[in-house]
Amino acid sequence: MHPLLQHDLDTLPEILRQACDTAVSFLETLPERSTCPPASAQNLQAGDDRLPESGIGAQAALEHFWNRYASGMSASAGPRYFGFVTGGGTPASLAADWLVSTVDQNTQLNFDSVSAAIELATITQLKQLFGLPDAVCGTFVSGATMANFVSMAIARQWLGQQCGVDIAQQGLAALGPIRVLSAAAHSSSVKALSMLGIGRDALVTVATLPGSEAIDPAALEEILAADPDRPTMVLASAGTVNTVAFDDLPALLRLREKYGFWLHVDAAFGGVAASSKRYAPLLAGWEDADSITVDAHKWLNVPYDSAIQFTQERHLALQVQVFQNHSAYLVLPSVRPDNYLHLTPENSRRFRALPVWMALKAYGRDGLAEVVERNVELAHLLGEKLAATPGFTLLAPVSLNVVCFALEGADGTPEALATRNRFQQRLDNAGVVRCTSTSLNCKPGIRAALVNWMTEEADIELALDSMKACYAEI
Ligand SMILES: *Cc1c(COP(=O)(O)O)cnc(C)c1O
């Protein structure tokens, strides 16, 4: 063995303690750490792109990394990171994630280790948490983008089957164009259309209900009725990013009865609202969708990267048709919900279920519902306070956990855009709260998405103070 490897093997407990100390010191600074490190701290330091001929050992390497780059890490895991939809990691899920790397299981098949059984059990518990029926199967993937991709791959296979074509064998050309209908498809779904060979141009944007991002079922029916035989998938939203709009799923299911399309529900963060009895009705009908996406690294607060793709059990054979993998050294695919190798894009798979399993064990439904309810309450508080603060205005009523706001008087002019950008720059430089810029109804806006388990009322006050101070300076 190389002497440095031998040395590190001999001192492994010390190395892990050092990593643990580093992690603890990072977490302790989280409340004060900048939510957007200065640009200078985001650069690579000299020499760090050069391959060393000889190493320095794990402890010195850890120290090297931390000394040089600690200041370039944002507080994205902390209580005032409202940008994108970025969750943190609860203590249980963080500890579990460390163990995932330590035990290093390859969660492919149902007989290799207990990890597949735990993934299956995690899916079973998530169905209970979300009010999804037994006849739904699920697998862990790396994010909602991949969950949308997998869902649409199964949809594609199903659309082929309706026309006697096996797309997995024959290719998409054997079927011809697929029509994709959505009012507010997430950009990741559009990306998935490209990856699937369906093409971004296949997306037809359906009109929304007045003043809403939710699909207008009448407009959808008009499109369906005009060309009822076209192979079609409908991408529904359960929580759009700007205004957290939920499509009327029961209405879409009635249309599915009539026109026979594949109904996919992108519930990347909105789906987690179903953990709370108070907000579960927003998801009414999703249990009958053909496929569903839910992110775990957003509102379930597990570390990156983790999401769940749900499929109705009746479609599982189609999922196997798409993702089965034949090789002399692999078992033949069978249609069962825990042969993950034959159900997901990956061959080798991280034991991604463990952080979710651990969080459910540690905090239960109560604990996770409390995070959802507190985030929603605080989003409303932030919205009320912003609406009452001179200089700010809401772009949309606060819905669930997202506040979409603007600077007063913001319109579609380049000046308004420049002012918003200046404000955003100041807010980032201050580093107290991170928001994302957006645009709604052609107005430049700012979005605060609350999904972190640590956020409290004091964070809303700190965020508001910073926003007011930055506004005064522009
Ligand atoms: C975040 C998000 C996605 C993409 O999720 P990733 O986890 O970043 O891949 C897709 N759809 C919606 C509605 C989202 O909010």
Automatic annotation (TrEMBL):
GO molecular function, one term: pyridoxal phosphate binding
One protein family per Pfam: Pyridoxal_deC
Gene Ontology biological process: amino acid metabolic process; carboxylic acid metabolic process
Keyword Lyase tagged: yes
Keyword field: Aminotransferase, Decarboxylase, Lyase, Pyridoxal phosphate, Transferase
The organism's place on the tree of life at top rank: Bacteria
Transferase is among the record's keywords: yes
Record-listed N6-(pyridoxal phosphate)lysine modification sites: 298
Alphabetical list of Gene3D superfamilies matching this protein: 3.90.1150.170, Type I PLP-dependent aspartate aminotransferase-like (Major domain) (3.40.640.10)
Cofactor(s) in the UniProt record: pyridoxal 5'-phosphate
Family of the protein in this entry: Belongs to the group II decarboxylase family.
PANTHER family, per database record: GROUP II PYRIDOXAL-5-PHOSPHATE DECARBOXYLASE (PTHR11999), MIP05841P (PTHR11999:SF70)
This protein's name: Aspartate aminotransferase family protein
Organism: Rahnella sikkimica
